[in-house]
Amino acid sequence: MALPPQDERTLPAVVLQDVDQRPLEHALAELQSLIDQHGHVIVVCSQAAPASVERRLHTVRALLETDRIALFRPPLPPLGLAVLARQLRQLASCDLSPGVLASAGRLLTHYIHAGALLGSVARLDHVPVGLKSHARSWMPGSQFGVVAHPVPQLVRIGPEAALDGPEFGTWLLVARGQLPADWVAGTLAPSWRVQGLRETPLPAESPGWWGTGRLTEFCAYLPDLSVLYQLVTSVRQSTCHWCGIDVIGDRCVFCSATPPVYDTGKDTRGDAAEGHRGVRALGHRRDPALGHRRERRALTR
To answer: How far, in whole angstroms, is CA 90 from its chain's centroid?
Structure first.
């Protein structure tokens, strides 16, 4: 996931190695050190990672009793996720607050087109596979073009094969696996009108995510920092009512709070309706009986 820098302003990434296998105190010390150095930490985690990784990250966050760690697991293939992580590293050099930067991950996900050229779709779980395509995947020499995000697509490679791509200018990042990338570079890239093509090693998680090692993964993305910055800053910002951090979108990425819903006006249905509204309103208030530490524990459960 730690792709080479896109430009000289791209900040380096910190890779959390074997976070679910090392002793818990080691992971606690590592995350605490990052918080002490940088103030806030955005953890981008692949959905291909074992469930034990997510559990360990939530455990560390709860034990540290902090709302300065954002856990983000977008529904992207490994290469697309690596591209998103690099875009956040690019934006980290700008004058964006931690909450806005972390929220930008959800926004930029919509502008990533991620897919792969596969030699088999028999074990593909992340994109719907029809019975005919499943049967053809057992035929020698069959190849399939697949887009997993933003809209699932699957075609068998042939003279008329085509995949819908982005309607805006992008670059294409290609990671060669055990399948030649001729169709991606010679057919897909021109049809998507990409402005450039770069290559990178195949992520280690890719064969497991796509269900085969016979693949070449690709991702169309926005490379220009100025465009990324304009996209993020053009979205209305708000302040999280719980932790007070600036965010974009309807959910705080650090404390997971959503905007409260306030009832206004008189309800003519009587005391029962009034009591119901009272319960809902209480759901958005901090309990004064809870201490600071207990509030944090309640938030992370």
So the answer is: 15
